[in-house]
Amino acid sequence: MSAIGISDLRVSVPDGFYPVRLDEDIESEDWARDVIAQAEAESGAVDHEDSLRDELYDLRIRLLAQLNPYLTAAVYVRREQFLSLGALMTFQVVEVEPEQDPAWFEREARAIASSEDAEGHTILFDTWQHPAPAGTLAGVHQVVEYLAPGVEDGWIEARTVFGVFPPGSHEMVHFTFTTADLATFGDMPSETESIVASLSIELDA
Fold this sequence. Notes:
Blueprint: E1 6-10, E2 17-19, H1 28-43, H2 51-65, E3 72-79, E4 83-95, H3 102-114, E5 121-132, E6 135-146, E7 155-165, E8 171-179, H4 188-196, E9 200-203
Antiparallel strand pairs: 1-9, 2-3, 3-4, 4-8, 5-6, 6-7, 7-8
Helix pairs in contact: 1-2
């Protein structure tokens, strides 16, 4: 029996998310300006001293540096008095071996988090599995504290990572959400999982 791949997928995202254009048809500074102009028009909030523009510019440069043509990304912009970067979402289709299932996904995430080579200090870690319309969903929630050498004050980053495993497929969909603003989500695992659960896929015939 031949392996079944994912031929198409769709994800629904809430208001406030903006696609990160990773094509070569636009400069990073122009993309950042476009996102800010749209967010300002929709919310009335402003980009104070171009701080969000600079963050978006740097973020797109880092994503492009990964040289990953399969990656799709979106940013969540918080729209209060001032605009700010709330979170980054990325996803892509990844090939898996038959033994690489949701339980394997959880084990790998735990091993990476506990590795001596891991960057930062994990202060919270949790994993779970839930059924989803597109397949079994394995989730990870991790909060990491980073300290730069010689600096007393560090920073904290929270992330959720998901793998959605369609039954019978040799491919899965890998999602990552990251934020350095812990006020972005009231319940990060639940809110980001609701986005992942909106995933609909089409498998090869």
